[in-house]
Amino acid sequence: MSFSSQVKEELNSLQIKSNCCKKAYLFGAALSSAISDGEIILKLSDKETAEKIVFLLKAIYKCEPDTKSIKRGCFESHELFFLSKKLAEFLCFADSFSSGESFEHIFTCQNCRSAFLRAVFCAMGSVSDPKKSYTLEIRVPNECRAQLICDVIGERGINIPSKTNRNGLVGMFYRNESSIEDFLTACGGNRSLFSFFEASVEKNLRNDENRATNCVARNISKSVEATALQISAIESLKATSTFDDLPREIKQSAILRIENPDMSLSELALLHKPPISKSGLNHRLAKIIEEAKKRNLL
């Protein structure tokens, strides 16, 4: 099983409890479909995703899709054929979507967006094994649908993916570790994140072994200085009422840094519940230093 299939298997194993989130998942998956004579046609490369969509169509829209599996060598694709007025209306909206347009009617609760992005990735995405390279790609049928996905991603505070046109599809992709980690976190793929953390640690260890002693010492010194600055900023803010006014997630990172002064950012990121990316943690600690400097505490 490829790494990409493992990620999809994890994402599809996550339970979707609310009906609004189940609808959001179907909306995300529907973005990969085509419509022919009023019939929605979904072509999927992943069996678990196809089975999940069939289950949700039956549960939410009382829809019984026709299914077809096509095998070519070791590759198998799955096609679903069904009628759904609600999904057809959503696709009409998506195919005329422009940046900045409201999509609040698609999402009801705070978990709907995660379910939506999860389905987008499971239906149209792929990700490389982080031990080999950092690439996450989503192939979307047209620019309007791609823009809708980008707006949802941007609303979550994640970097917008780059785009390219490939064989009539819009390719949306990330080629850096932190953006891929942030996207998978938004989808709920916490277990998959550990593969990125492990790969990062392994690469760091190999790099450390190849560096000269003075270079390693210099890096350690910088890390110690950065940690000392972070701790100083946190303690300065705690000595005032300012610390209590910080957002909950930033206070969580601050407390973990105080309690674990010797840990690297990668190790500290793993202690968060749920885990966050190294870049996300670095952003939070930078915010703390910025707040301290703003109040002339550093």
Kindly summarize this structure in a few lines.
By secondary structure, the chain is of the alpha+beta class. The protein has helices at residues 3-13, 19-30, 47-61, 85-94, 112-124, 143-155, 177-187, 190-210, 213-238, 248-259, 265-271, 278-294, and strands at 34-36, 39-44, 66-72, 75-82, 125-127, 136-140, 162-166, 169-174. Strands 1-2-4-3 form a four-stranded antiparallel beta sheet, with helices on one face. The chain has a four-stranded antiparallel beta sheet with strand order 5-6-8-7.
Descriptive report:
The chain has 12 helices and 8 strands. The protein has 298 residues and is α+β, with helices and mostly antiparallel strands. Strands 1-2-4-3 form a 4-stranded antiparallel sheet, with helices on one face. The protein has a 4-stranded antiparallel sheet with strand order 5-6-8-7. A hairpin with a 2-residue loop joins strand 1 and strand 2. Helix 2 runs parallel beside helix 5 (112-124) and helix 7 packs antiparallel against helix 8. The mean pLDDT is 89.
Average pLDDT: 89
How is the largest sheet built, in terms of strand order? 1-2-4-3
Biggest sheet layout: 4 strands, antiparallel
Please trace the helix and strand order, writing H or E for each element.
HHEEHEEHHEEHEEHHHHHH
Number of helices: 12
Radius of gyration: 22 Å
Give the low-confidence spans.
none
Mass-distribution shape: elongated
End-to-end separation in angstroms reads 51 Å
β content, as a range? Answer: 5-15%
Per-chain topology:
Layout: H1 3-13, H2 19-30, E1 34-36, E2 39-44, H3 47-61, E3 66-72, E4 75-82, H4 85-94, H5 112-124, E5 125-127, E6 136-140, H6 143-155, E7 162-166, E8 169-174, H7 177-187, H8 190-210, H9 213-238, H10 248-259, H11 265-271, H12 278-294
Antiparallel strand pairs: 1-2, 2-4, 3-4, 5-6, 6-8, 7-8
Helix pairs in contact: 2-3, 2-5, 7-8, 9-10, 9-12, 10-12, 11-12
